[in-house]
Each structure stands twice: as structure tokens, then as C-alpha cells.
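Both lines are retained for reference:
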Amino acid sequence: MIISKPSFIRHLSMQPVALLMAVAFVVVTIVPGHAHSERPGSFADLADQLSPAVVNISTTTVIENQQNNFPQFPPGSPFEDFLEEFRDRGSKRQAQALGSGFIVDKKGIVVTNNHVIESADQIKVTLYNDKTFDAVLLGRDPKTDIAVLKIEPEGEELTAVEFGDSDVMRVGDWVLAIGNPFGLGGTVTAGIISARGRDIGSGPYDDFIQTDASINRGNSGGPLFNLEGEVIGINTAIFSQTGGSVGIGFAIAANLATNVVDQLAEYGRTRRGWLGVFIQEITPEIADSLGLESENGALVSSVHPEGPAQAGGVMAGDVVLKFDGKAISDMRSLPRIVAETAIGKEVKVEVLRDGKMKTLTITLGELEQAEQAGLFGESAKANADPHSFASLGFTVAPLTDESRKEYEVPDEANGNPINGVIVTEVVDGSPAAERGLTPGDVIRRIGQQQVMTVSDLIDGVAEVRKSNKTSFLLLVRRGSRERFVAIPVE
């Protein structure tokens, strides 16, 4: 297929001053001793080696039109059959999307983002040599935004790449991104790791690598490589006010993705470990009240009565400091570590209780089974139903497909998912109304805590009240803008 040059591509000329600046940038001293930080003279050999494993993904989704302006005829009318075909054509339309992916098994296993193929009726995978194959969805995981596809090579010799250890990567290490930005086909960009362990509010297991390698729309699902040619991230999102690259891209860390990919390929779904506790962040005030020397760990706010933690002796008020030998640096690291641990495994959990260390032995359950069995009790019910904060004057509800449509809340903005809870009612003259809260606002955070469910907001407000603060801060999205709103406690 011949693609004409898009109007947004322009030739750039470099002025003499800019040339001198570029030369000055290149002539630097590279400190030896860390293989990842040594910049090669060229990325060409690496790009040649890796590009055949990167694929373009195109999807087609059939969308039902809401309105049908064809006239209606009574049954048996001679015009009924005549217009039936045209009525069908007019009631549906096709939406197409493009993304990236990469081959991890020569048998045809392809990894991409869930949002690239979500709701697709047809998925096609195009190799670097322009050969196209129909793809079958093996499994997908919205919580980590990962999907696994399968193509039949039909005699084609595929090139596969392997996941590397993302934990050894350091800020400043060189990385290479290959993908399909704007549908242009195989495009290679280079940069460094700008930050690690980013939480961008896309899900409960956020562990993103931030990079300044140029990532644009269409790069989603493509690989982020280290200089050994290993995949250390899956390019997923960008931060941008224009929709184009501004040098802030995010990739799912390989150590989080590897286990998910293996499970989706083998079982068609994830099988995560389940501990059965509700936890919260340890703030400086909480650390001081508990006599903690630091804010490390996860504070157990409650224990599920039918969960593994209850059987293992975990109690509300315990501070989890180590799980299966791994230190818990903060609240959000515990769910990720638990999820990655094998189901049925006996693990040692170190907790601080009443100023004393205790080691408990817990046999992990399966999160997905617990969800299907409805074992989350009042918390699950709270997450499914609206909740009224009567004294504050507002009501919230889960952010569902229906509420998104009703309040015109998109699934994502600038490549970043929009999560939270929706404000459905605000009482005139109430504290919420006086601070400018309105129906349709999406509450995304309370203080420093992310709000993914109604229970998250309930717990956050309860915690503020316990701390005797006079107000709490909400991060609210309205339209295309986000702002903080301070609501008085009473």
C-alpha cells in the first residue's frame, strides 16, 4: 500500500548555531562500568536485529448507529424486502484503529496493549515485510492493559524477542522504542529512562517506566528495548497536551508484564494471588501515631473475613513491611507483589503490630475466583452502588460505560485512561456546591490516594475525619481539565 506524505511532515533545516550545539552535546565523556549506559556509535545494528519482531496491528470494530432514518413499511409490503439490505447498511459503520505489538514466540504469539484491540471485531497483524495475518485474541487484562494474540505463520519464519529484567534498569539508561506511530509503519526512536515506578492512575498495578524516547499515537503496544535487545517495557501511554510526543512516554515494566503475558497465553486469563486485605497509605501523621520510623509499608485497614489473610492471622492495624521476602516500600507495591505471587503458595508475611515484629504464614488464594464468587461483601456492593455523602452534599457512583455516555466522559485523554468515580448529584447550598462541585465531575484522587472505586473515596473521607483535618482535597476532572477542590469535612 502506498502512503502519500502526510501534511504534518515538514523538512527541517539546521542552522549553524544549532549544529554547534548538537556537536557539543555529542562530545561528552561516558563513564564506564555500567553496560546499559554506554551509548553505541549507532543504533542501526540493533534496529536491524529487532525490527522484524515488531508488528503493526490494525483493528476493525462494527458500531451500531443510534439513529435509523429509513421509513418503516407494514409487514408484507413489497418495499420491505427491497429496503432491508439498505437499512442494514445504514444501521452500521466500521471504525478502524492502529497500534503496535511484538512477537515473543516464533509459533505466532504477539503481545500488545489491551486498549489497542479492545472491542475489536477483527484484528490483523502486519509483519515488517508487509505480510498480513488474521489474529486470534488469546486473552486480555484490562487491569494492566495487556493483550496476547495468536497468528498462524503459515510457513513464514518469524523473529521473536525476549523480555529482560526491568528491575536492573536505571534512570539514565539508553532505550530504543520501535512501533507504528500514526500508521507510518516501522519507526525507531531512542532515548533514556527518565523515571521508574510511575503511577499514572491507569490501574491498581501501575508500574511504569518513563522515557523520553519519542512515542506517539500508534506506538501503543510496541516494545521498549534495552541495548541488549531485550524488551524491558511495553509502550502504553504518553503525557501530552497536543496528542503528540513531548518527551514523556510511559511503558509497562517488563517484570510486571511477563507473568501476565504467560498467564494469558496459557490460560486465556490472569490468575493473580489474593491476600484478602484492604490497605491504605501510611501518611506522616499515621506513621507518627503508630511510632513508625518511616512511612514504608502498607497499613491494613480491614481484613476480609473469608480471605487468606484472616486465616493467617493478619489483623486490622497491622503494617505489612515484607511479603514473601520482598520489602514493601509503599502501599501500592503490596497489591502488585501479591498479584505476581503463585496461587496456593505459602508465604511469610512480616507485620508490625503494637510496636513488635511478627512473622505470619499465609497460603495465597486466587483473586479472580474471589471476584467471581462475590467474596468482597460490603466493599463490592459499595463499589457497585451510588453513595451519598449527606453531610457534604454530594453523591457519587461508579464510572461505568453508561455513566461515561450520560456525562460525556471519554475512556482516555491524550493516551491516558480516565478513571475514578462520577459525581451524580450536588445539593444546593451544601459544602460541595459552595466549592464548585457539579454533577458530571470525575473524582480521581482524594489527597494523595488514587480513587478507582466508590469504596476508595469512602475510605479516604473516613480517614480524613479520623485525622481531625478540617478539609480534604479532591482531584476533579471536568471536561478536558483537572483541578483540585478543597471540601470542608463538616
Residues 1-37, 377-382 have pLDDT under 50 and may be disordered.
